[in-house]
Every structure is written in C-alpha cells, then in structure tokens.
Design goal:
The structure holds 2 protein chains of 2 kinds. Chain A is an all-alpha fold. Chain A is built from 7 helices and no strands. Chain A is globular. Classes of the chains: A mainly alpha, B mainly alpha.
C-alpha cells in the first residue's frame, strides 16, 4: 500500500463522509462529518506530497486541516448556538430519499469519471471521488431548507473542486490554494453575518423567508 | 525617430488625461489638457509626414512603438494613414475647444469632460497602433466607454437616453468583435496580426463566415451601418461640439480601419459576403442622406450625413472585396486602384469636413443657443468669413467641385460608370444599379446641404436669438476655416498622387492597384475651369448688367416683409418627405389652443411635426417588444427560492457534462 493508494483511499473516505452528510439532520452530526471529510482530504494531500516529494503540498495539507477540519466546524457550531438558532435542520425531502439521491450522484460520478479518465492521465478513483463530492454538494444545496445546510452544501462542493484540482493537476500552486482558502474564509464570514441578520429578522434560518426579496 | 514621435503622441494623450485630473481645481486645467492634446496631434502629424516621406522614397516598413508579451503597438502604412486622420482631427478639435469650452464651463464638468476626451483620443490611437487582438480590444473598449461619457457630458435626460442607446450598441458590438477576433485568432488574443491571418486560413468556411459576420456587426455598429445605426444620430449630437466632431469625423474612421484590417486577415472573401457589405453600405448611404434631408436639428442632420458617407465608404470597400470574384478581365487592377483611391480620399475628406461642420455648427449654437434650423437664418451678413468657411465645408459634404470630396467620389462614380463595360452583363447591371443608388444619394446630399446652408445663413433671422447673435470669435472661426481650406486643397493635391498606382500600393491596403484608364481627370483643370467660368460670368455681368442699381424693399403685396414669409427647413424638405413617405414616417399633429374660452373658432393653430425612423418602427420596436415579452415569461423563473436557482445551476452543470461526453 503506497502513498498513492492511501491518497485515493482518503478521497473515497471523503466521499463516504459526504454521502452520510447528505441525509444528516442535526448540526453537530453534520459538523463532525465535515471535519472528518476535511481531515481525510488533508490526509490525501499529505499522501500525495509523500508520493511526489512536493514540499508545498505539505503546507496545503496543513492549512486545509487547520481551517477546514478544526476552525470552520468549531465556529459553525459555536455561532449557531450563540445565536440560539435551531440545531435541528430541515430539508425538502426525507433522509432516505436524500440518501438515494446521494447514491445516484456517486453512480453518475463514476460513469462520468470513466469517460474523463480515458481522455486524461488522472487516476479514475480521484476523478470519480471529486466529481461525486461536487454532485453531492449540489444535492445538499438544492435539498436543504436552512442556511446551515446550504452552507455545508457549499463547503462540500468546494471540497470536490479542491479534490478535482488535486486529481487533474496534482494540486494547485500554493498561492492559488492560499487564495482559495482565503475565499472560503470570506464566504464563512458572509454566511455568519447573513445568518445573524436572518435570525434577528425572522427568528429562523429557513430560506423560505428570502422569497420576499424578489424584485 | 518615427517610433519616438508616434510614442510621444500616444504618451501625450495619456498625459493630457492625467493633467485633466491633476489640475481639476485649477482655472487653467482645460487649456493645459487641450494644449497637451494639440501637442500630441502635432507629434502624430510630424510622424505621419515623416512616414509619408519614407513611403514616397519606397521605404515600406512597420514602425515599432512598444512591444511586450501582453501589449504590442506598431504602425503600418494602413494604420499610419488612419492615425494621420486621428491626429489631424485631434489637433483641429482641441484648438477649437480652447475657444469653445470656456463658454460652457458652467454647463459641463470640464475636468471630467477633458479626462474623457483624452482617454477617448488615447483609445483611438491605441486601437490603430494595436499589434494584436488583445491590445486592439482593450483600446477599442477604452475608446467606446470614454465616448459614452462624452455623450452624457451635459447630464440632460436626452443625453442620458442617447448615451444608454449608444452604450448598449457599443457593448453588443464589442462582444461581436471579441468573439469574431478570437474565432479568427484560434482563441489566442496575444497572437500578432500575421499569426491571426495564418490561423484564419486554417479555419473551416463556416467558422470564417461566422467571424466575418460578427466583425461586420461589431465594426458596422460603430460605423453606423443600417440597421445598426439608430444610436448614432441620437448620440453624436448630444456631445459637446468638439467631441461630436471627433465622434463623427474621426471615430467612425477607426471602425472603418478595423473592418479593413479584419477582412485583410481573411484568406479570401466570397462574392456573397462582399455583396452583403455593398448592400449594407448603399442602404446606409441612402437612409442616412434621406434623414439628413428631412432633419431640422442642425447637429443631428450632420450625424445622419455621417451615416451616408460611412455607407459610401463601406460600399467602396465592398466593391473592392467583390472585384476578385468578378469577370472584369484586364480592368480589374485599374478598377481596384480607382476604388482604393476613393476610400483613401473620401475617408480623409469626410474626416475633415465633418469635423469642420460640427465645429462650425457648434459655434453657431454657442452664439444663437439653438440647433433648430427653423429658428436660424440671416447669419451670413453678420459673419461673412465664418459663413464662407461653412459654405466650403457644405460644398464638400455635398461632394461639389472644387472640394476634395468631389474628386474622391469621382473615383467611385467613374469605375461604376465605365469600369464594368467589358464585364459580364450581370456585373454591368449590378454596377449600374449601384451607380444609380450612389447618384441618388449624391443628389439628395446636395439638397440636404443646400438646405443646411441656406436656412442657417441666408435670408432673414427667424428668431430673436439669431437676430441678436454677437460677433463670431476668431478662435471659433479659425479651426473650421482650417478644415475648409484643407478639404478644398486635398483633392487638388492628393488626387494627382492617387492616380499613380505605386503610391496606392505603398499604403499597404490589402488590394492590388493600378490606374483606371478613362477615370483620369486633372483636378487643377477642374479648378481652373471653375475659376475661368467665374471670371467669364463676372465679365459678362460687367458688360451687360444695368449700371444703376436701385435698392428698395422687395415687393410683397403691400404687407411688411417678415422672416415668417421665408422658406423654412421644414417646408424646404417637404417634397422629399412626400416622395419617400413610406420610408420617412412623418407624424403631423395640429395643435389648437383657444384664445377665447367662449368661442372655439378663435384659436391659435400650429402644426407639430416629427419624423420617425423606418427602422425604429419596423425593427427595433418589434424586437424590443418581443424581448420584453420573453423577459416577462422568463421572469416567472424568479420565484425567490434559492434552492430552485441552485437546481438550475446543477441541471446546467449536469447538462454540460453530458453534452461534453
């Protein structure tokens, strides 16, 4: 079992975590799964760094671990509790249906990756995992009714794009990754500000209230 | 040396923009900015003269101005010619602005206006010097956006509406150019023009056709080609007059340059594409001049006339593109030379007389505070020198001898009249049809400019504003006068030169060249014939006229003679409006205002009259209504559910992936 295999295994683990996230309806559970997924992603980058001797990839793995596995899940839970928002999350479909949706997304990703792997030199598992993460993330974005669920959906899409970059180019240069992590931090700050305002206005984080904003 | 002069001209226009901002609080800001622009124009003109001397000695070279991987600027013989037009226009209009703008210092925010003017000039110069699509597009966009701020400079509602129309069309045009040029360049915006031409040769015919149509739309919309012209007569007159002169006299030539450059990148232009250019050119010339005849707003009338002349220029370019596909035999080279001469001479002349006319009209408006021809009149007695300059410019716009425009259009008429004699019957018939339309346009142009000059300057003043107009300042007289002198001399000096094939070839236009037998004419001969006729008429008059002249009131049935008895601009154009009523949609309303409430028969009656564009009623409004209807139905998608929007993105993503696989 070389580092390349372990890197692929970590990505598969990240997909499994995303699959479980698709049907979780509790904040703590969702945050824990996201932290696990981020840990697996940073481990995948670290194994990739070992396999290719890429020093900057270690830094990316470290930063990913600190920001995505530790800080974001912790802040998410803390801020929701500080605002007194409900930790019980809501969706348009039942958990079983969402699980089937996630399963379909993974299967579809597998099919797409087969075609893509023929056209590029990227490994099939890495491609399939990253596309599956993006599709599951989108599924969460479409199916969740509250801002917390939407936020986690976006984070899963971002994880998929991060993994796709790793699969196709062997990881972006460090400054690009730094830029992406900065963007993620900005997104998080905006989400918190928006959620705070929504909680104050409507005493709820449900996105149904945003329908009034159409012009 | 040439590179230094061209580079200096480019940098000076940038320095003018910086000066406009840096000296915003200074009383001398506008003067310094325009002095820098004049200096930029003089540097550019010196470079142009130097380049011409080199070309005359047979040295044909590309002048590198600035080149990095990101931006490349150089001057070729083709761009050198158009740069000379820009620098000439900038010198004249900035000279004029020194006298014109101080009168409007409360009307416009001068630092911003001068900043926009400088950037506009920088954009035009950059577009002409651009050595690759990237630099070209950046400079083009700079020119377009700066022009928007010139149009809305006075902040009036009319200007904002016209500016919005312009900006919409400019951005659509830019989009077409972006896609068209990238298509030709194989997606590489940093490729040199030579590399773009190489990539274009490898394109399939359908892609080449697509690129050609996009470029025609992009450049045609800027040049005011029908049916993309609707913005032009609304936008150009709204700008301050020195800017209108640049917009109409110079910017339109940049669009023409872009079109010639881009067709030069194509390996070949099929006959049908050339026919499209000819038809659009003729339609533009016809609709432009028709509206120029019926328009009563002096500046707007000039803008319509610009559409006419750009239409003629595009017709000339279209004929040049069509020639390789026509069976004209041995005459092909001669026809090409004559038509190339037309494009060169007419572009130069239009640039001069249109800048001059806009400046002169701006001066009239500055003195009388009206653009309405029906409120002007009698100005020739007050400003003889100025009206003489205006007459020379109007003669030039009507393509009458001895002005350069006459000789330029001669080079279009002659090939159409005699050049296709040996061609197949279909080609001869086509040439005859083109000739008929061009002749009609020429006749209407004479009508339009007779109206403009006579209503504005002859007879009696039609309003108190015209009656009380003060002295015309010298600073507002000299720049139009200089334009009038130059346009009068251009034919005399350039026509003999253009009759020599090697001079035409040296300009590097993408067409072959030779002299057309039978099209030759001595420009000096024409002038001497005119002078001789005038002298003979004077001698005849002296010999036979009555010696005693009694000055008295004109007989008018005993009633006092008033300005209301004169022919108005509206009345003058009535026959043309009637004849072309299907195309010039007139809307007449009788406004009745009772004078005595109890008796409806005692009332003031006046006729309210307006024209509507055939294209606006038949094309733009229906398209606009359809767009609004489609938007209203699409708006139903906006239900406010963010998940629904994300689902659309998701569906699009999946769709794209499936399509790509």
């Amino acid at each position: 079992m070389g580092p390349v295999f372990l890197s692929g295994a970590c990505l598969v683990g990240a997909v499994l975590a995303a699959f479980l996230m698709a049907s979780r309806m509790r904040l703590a559970s969702l945050a824990s799964l996201y932290a696990i997924q981020a840990m697996l992603l940073s481990a995948a980058v670290a194994f990739y760094a070992v396999a290719h001797g890429d020093a900057s990839a270690y830094a990316v793995a470290g930063l990913t671990f600190v920001l995505k596995a530790l800080l974001i899940p912790y802040w998410f839970v803390r801020i929701v509790r500080a605002h007194g928002s409900s930790e019980r999350l809501v969706a348009y479909a039942r958990p079983t249906t969402l699980s089937f949706g996630a399963l379909f997304s993974v299967s579809f990703a597998g099919l797409i990756a087969q075609e893509l792997a023929r056209a590029s030199s990227a490994p099939y598992v890495a491609l399939a995992s990253s596309i599956a993460l993006i599709l599951i993330g989108f599924l969460m974005l479409v199916s969740r009714r509250d801002m917390i669920g939407l936020g986690f959906g976006f984070l899963v899409v971002e994880a998929g794009v991060f993994a796709l970059g790793l699969a196709l180019t062997g990881g972006m240069p460090l400054f690009v990754e730094l830029g992406a992590l900065f963007d993620l931090s900005i997104f998080f700050v905006l989400l918190v500000a928006f959620a705070r305002r929504a909680q104050r206005e409507h005493a709820s984080l449900a996105t149904d209230y945003l329908r009034e904003l159409i012009g | 040396m040439l590179a230094l002069l061209y580079g200096g001209a480019f940098l000076l226009s940038g320095a003018a923009a910086l000066a406009a901002m840096a000296l915003a609080r200074s009383a001398h800001q506008s003067a310094v900015t325009h002095a820098l622009l004049i200096l930029s124009g003089l540097f550019g003109l010196a470079a142009s003269v130097g380049y011409c001397i080199e070309l005359a000695h047979g040295v044909v070279r590309v002048v590198p101005v600035y080149a990095t991987a990101l931006f490349a600027f150089f001057v070729t013989p083709l761009s050198g010619f158009f740069l000379a037009l820009v620098f000439l226009g900038v010198t004249l209009t900035s000279w004029y602005a020194l006298g014109y703008l101080p009168r409007y210092h409360t009307h416009y925010t001068l630092p911003w206006l001068d900043f926009a003017t400088s950037l506009f000039v920088l954009g035009m110069v950059g577009t002409l010097m651009a050595g690759q699509p990237f630099a070209f597009l950046i400079a083009w966009e700079l020119m377009s956006v700066a022009a928007y701020f010139l149009i809305i400079a006075d902040g009036s509602r009319e200007s904002l509406t016209a500016g919005f129309r312009y900006l919409l069309m400019a951005q659509l045009g830019f989009l077409a150019l972006l896609v068209g040029l990238l298509l030709l360049a194989g997606g590489d915006p940093f490729a040199s023009w030579a590399a773009v031409a190489h990539a274009a040769a490898a394109l399939p015919p359908s892609a080449r056709l697509g690129a050609f149509l996009l470029l025609l739309v992009g450049f045609g919309s800027k040049a005011g080609l029908v049916p993309l012209h609707q913005w032009l007569p609304a936008a150009h007159p709204q700008a301050p007059s020195h800017s209108s002169a640049l917009l109409s006299g110079v910017m339109l030539k940049v669009a023409l340059y872009g079109f010639i450059l881009s067709v030069g990148l194509l390996p070949a232009v099929p006959f049908s594409w050339a026919m499209l250019v000819i038809v659009l050119g003729l339609a533009s010339a016809f609709f432009g001049v028709l509206h120029a005849v019926v328009e009563n707003d002096a500046k707007r009338m000039l803008a319509w006339s610009s559409i006419e002349h750009m239409g003629l220029l595009f017709t000339g370019v279209g004929l040049l593109l069509a020639l390789p596909n026509l069976p004209v035999g041995a005459d092909a080279a001669a026809l090409t030379a004559a038509l190339t001469g037309f494009v060169i001479l007419h572009a130069l002349n239009h640039s001069l007389f249109k800048s001059g006319l806009f400046m002169a009209t701006g001066a009239v408006v500055a003195q009388t505070h009206t653009r309405d021809l029906d409120r002007l009149g009698g100005l020739a007695q007050r400003w003889p020198l100025f009206s003489g300059a205006f007459l020379a410019l109007a003669l030039s716009a009507a393509a009458l001898p001895p002005t350069g425009t006459f000789f330029g259009e001669w080079l279009l008429f002659q090939p159409l009249a005699i050049g296709f004699r040996s061609a197949a019957p279909a080609s001869s018939l086509g040439a005859a049809l083109v000739l008929a339309v061009v002749a009609l346009v020429g006749g209407l142009a004479v009508f339009a400019f007779v109206k403009l000059f006579s209503v504005m300057f002859l007879g009696r003043p039609r309003s108190s504003a015209a009656e009380q107009a003060g002295e015309m300042p010298l600073l507002l007289t000299l720049p139009p006068l200089a334009a009038a002198v130059l346009v009068s001399l251009s034919g005399l000096l350039l026509f003999p030169l253009l009759a020599q094939p090697e001079r035409v070839r040296l300009l590097g236009l993408p067409f072959a060249s030779a002299v057309l037998p039978g099209a030759a004419m001595s420009s000096w001969g024409v002038v001497f014939a005119l002078l001789g006729s005038a002298a003979a008429a004077a001698a005849f008059y002296r010999a036979f006229a009555r010696r005693t002249i009694r000055i008295t009131e004109t007989w008018d049935c005993g009633a006092p003679l008033t300005a209301r008895m004169q022919y108005t601009a509206t009345g003058f154009s009535a026959p043309i409006r009637f004849f072309f009523r299907a195309l010039v949609l007139s809307k007449k309303t009788l406004v009745v205002e009772p004078v005595v409430v109890t008796n409806p028969w005692i009332a003031k009656r006046r006729l309210s009259w307006a024209t509507e564009s055939f294209w606006e009623a038949g094309l733009y409004r229906p398209v606009g209504r359809a767009a609004i209807a489609i938007s209203a139905s699409v708006r139903r998608l906006q239900n406010g559910a963010v998940q629904f929007y994300l689902a659309l993105v998701f569906a699009a993503l999946v769709g794209v992936i499936l399509f790509a696989l």
